[in-house]
Amino acid sequence: MKRRDFITFLGGTVAAWPSATRARQPVDALRSAMSDYAKISHPTEAARSDYITRLVRMREQAARQNNDAWQAIDAEIKLHPAPNDSDAKTLAGLIVGEWQSPRHDTLYRADGTWTLLPAEAGILHGTWHVEGNQYFDTAQYTDTTATEPPQTNQYTIILITKKDFVFTDQTHVFYETRPK
Question: CA 142 to CA 115: how far, in whole Å?
């Protein structure tokens, strides 16, 4: 526990802020999840997916509580990407549709194009595709006059389900969820 998490000595005892106790909970839950997963000698893809889903829910909780546990959760999530030989067609099929992230909503179309929502003139859009566990996208604005071709970004898919799309650029982890 960090120094700022403590109240000064009160009658010879130390009392912790309630937020300090809450901050420990995600870290304790992460340690427990990691321990549980480590006990599986040869985890199946289903076990990996369940584990990542559990971590994603912890990450959401840590973000709501506004504590630093999300960084440790992100670090653990990055260690468990989808298999290299994942079926790209299946993963791409799961991506198609509307997704929400903390910053914006996105529509991924089956024709390999995407757009930020609401779709209107001048909005950021581009193309996307999947190869194995790699997700690629390009981005440009509708009204751009740039002569340079749009840059393609490459990400590693961590998890794609009907509810969650989690991927990383090896530095940051990106989270998208289906609208309710």
Answer: 10
Is the CB of residue 95 less than 8 Å from the CB of residue 82?
no
pLDDT at 48 over 50: yes
Tokens of 57: 């829910």
With 0.70 as the threshold, say if the pTM is over it.
Answer: yes
What DSSP string describes 90-146? HHHHHH-EEEE-SS-EEEE-TTSEEEEES--TT-EEEEEEEETTEEEEE-EETT---
Cβ contacts of 111 within 8 Å, gap of 6 or more: none
pLDDT digits (tens, 9 = 90+) for 26-43: 788 999 999 999 999 999
Structure tokens at 5: 């998490």
